[in-house]
Amino acid sequence: MQQQQMKTVYFIRHGVARHNVPDPNTGQMPNLHDERYTDPSLIQEGEMQACELGAKLRQMGLVSDVMSGSSEAMDTGCNTKQPIDLVVCSPLTRCIQTASHIFPNFSSICCHGGVREAFGMHYPDRRSPLSQITAKFPHLTYHHPSLSSEDDIDWQPHIRETRDDVVRRIDNFLAWLTQQPQQSIGIVSHGVWIECALLKYCPQVLEFGKKRVYNCEVYKAHLAYDENKLVLNNVEQIA
Description:
By secondary structure, the chain is an alpha/beta fold. It has five helices and seven strands, in the order E-H-E-H-E-H-E-H-E-H-E-E. The longest helix has 16 residues, at 44-59.
């Protein structure tokens, strides 16, 4: 298979959500096995993080000030960076909110089950019913078999995905991404998912597991499919 044109991808972790911070009354971190933390929203700090990141990426020429899809949106002028022309996000609320704050002028954001967090056991990683998501976020399109059902059929209370399971999803998603026509892509996902991707393809960027990916951090990389092999290289943290 001939090498396809290189794509630039931006891995973005969601902003701080309700399950990421200690309980204000007890000072204890939330119990992730508590159903009350199902698919939590961003807290105010997380919304501010996402808005500030959007402003920073706009200054860098990666986020357009005009509606996505118009010819004006793709005119970079003297800017050497190509604005992000496809946004893919996890179907969990915190990622949808983060993507919506960073890319407010996108008329459509692609919601893809392949970039969701490791699922099972932890209630924050259980998605809301599809009807609730579509009512809250009408600007989404859906691209994954698991997003054709009202309820989260993947999440189970007594078993959780392994890292190998997550890596398989990552490989399938990146292979799908190489087939898309867009060349500059923002991926709004989760800490474990992004860490699994980087540790497989470029472990040195995370100091071989010593470094974590924190809320609203951004990693830029180049992606290609070369001789039936995914290639992810030139990785750097830009925010």
